[in-house]
Amino acid sequence: MSRFQVATEEEIRSGRTTDVYFVRTKKVMEAKGRDRVRVVAEVTTGALPDQRPWGVLCGIEEVARLFEGAPVDIHSMPEGSVFHPQDINGVRMPLLTVEGVYHDFCELETPMLGFICQESGVSTRAAYVKLAAGRKPVVAFGARRAHPALTPALDRAAYIGGVDGVSTLRGAEAIGEAPMGTMPHSLMIVFGDQASAWRAYDESLGPEVPRVALVDTYWDEKVEAVKAAEVLGDRLSAVRLDTPGSRRGDFPSIIREVRWELDLRGHSGVGIFVSGGLDEEAVRTLGEAGADGFGVGTYVSCAPAVDFAFDIVEVEGRPSAKRGKLGGRKQVWRCPRCMVDIVRPATEAGPGCPRCGGEMEEMLRPLIRGGEIVGELPEPKEIRRRTLAQIDLMKSQP
User: Fold this and answer.
1) Under a CB-based contact definition with an 8 Å cutoff, are residues 375 and 369 in contact?
2) Helices 380-395 and 109-133: crossing angle, nearest 10°?
3) Average pLDDT value over all residues in the chain
4) Alpha carbons 199 and 219: distance in angstroms, whole number
């Protein structure tokens, strides 16, 4: 038995993390001879957290691994796709569809939604933070605010959403990059003073580690920043301000003071990295004040989940849906230039873009066929690149 409250991969894939009503549903279907009914079900959402106009889909690779070997066909938007809750006509957009005998896969609904609801929430907030930061780097610092078993998934989702790096070892492994970070206040406290700690850091670590000095442990931030520059000289890459809100005052003014005092003494090449309770508005404001990089933690790692639902829309080839949902298998058509989406019945041909008149492409693409993974599962770096390209297109749309 595990020492931690963590489900194993086998428990997840075998349905041990499902809601009990799916187990009871299977028993009822078996008892009444309805256990071979074939259905089509789709994932949609009516709205996004924070009243966002668009989100970033994440968790699709884990969905593929979850259903691998199950006798189903799955079509999905590619991981990292920017999506709207509704198309241009107000129709809910399916982001993923599953076709198969309902008895064979119903127990996997709960873990499937768990993957994409939480990870899409994280990737969506990460995208808006990166949008606020622009070209300035953002590092995910939020692992300590979540269950440690989720560290790889949360860091990967943040990276796919747009952050430039992650702080944890396992999270960095998941995205195929080196971990990024600075130093904790505890280092200064253990050494007894800032200068000793900065020197020890510089003397103990290899040249591949940037010298970013934490400068708000004991003294005023600008005083410590100047001191760090004097101690480390040209080896100092940046200073980090992690001032808690209770002592912060006017944080933009503190950043401007630090920048002024460093520049005045010939240290204009030393960057200012900020962290501590940041959200996207703080990132935008502090960036305008002169911050050169951001560590964002809780706001991203503890993002509210996207409220995806999974609903049957077709039974034995016939449209069938509960009230409030639209029946029948569907396809989502997107203009790759305008990011306009239109939902149509799957039997209909794709429309032209109502905005630019260009051709539209199918967004629901084969992911699993008969239990075999047939869709592409790109590396996180490639997914992130496509995500950022879509976000750039969103910025230019009316």
Assistant:
1) no
2) 60
3) 95
4) 18
Residue 245 has pLDDT above 70, yes or no: no
Q: At what angle do helices 221-232 and 251-264 cross, to 10 degrees?
A: 30
Residue 36 belongs to a domain with what CATH number? 3.20.140.10
d(CA 84, CA 88): 9
pLDDT in tens, 167-198: 999 999 999 999 999 999 999 999 999 999 99
Q: What is the DSSP string of 257-319?
A: HHHHHHHHTT-TT-EEEEESS--HHHHHHHHHHT--EEEE-HHHHTPPPP--EEEEEEETTEE
Q: Do 283 and 145 fall into the same domain?
A: yes
Which two tokens mark 139?
Answer: 């590092």
Provide the CATH number for the domain around residue 183. 3.20.20.70
Q: Are 92 and 397 in contact (CB under 8 A)?
A: no
Residue 370 DSSP label: T
Using the structure block, give the residue that is written with the tokens 């070209």.
135
- Alpha carbon distances (Å) from 225 to 132, 279, 282: 25, 24, 21
Residue 32 burial by Cβ neighbours in a 10 Å radius (0-12, 13-18, 19+):
exposed
Polymer length of the chain = 398
Last residue of a domain, one of 257, 281, 301: 301
**Residue 82 is part of which domain span?**
9-120+304-395
- The dihedrals phi and psi of 216, each to the nearest 5 degrees, come to -145, 30
Confidence grade of residue 396 (pLDDT, cut at 50, 70, 90): confident
Q: For 9-42, write each residue's pLDDT tens digit.
A: 999 999 999 999 999 999 999 999 999 999 999 9
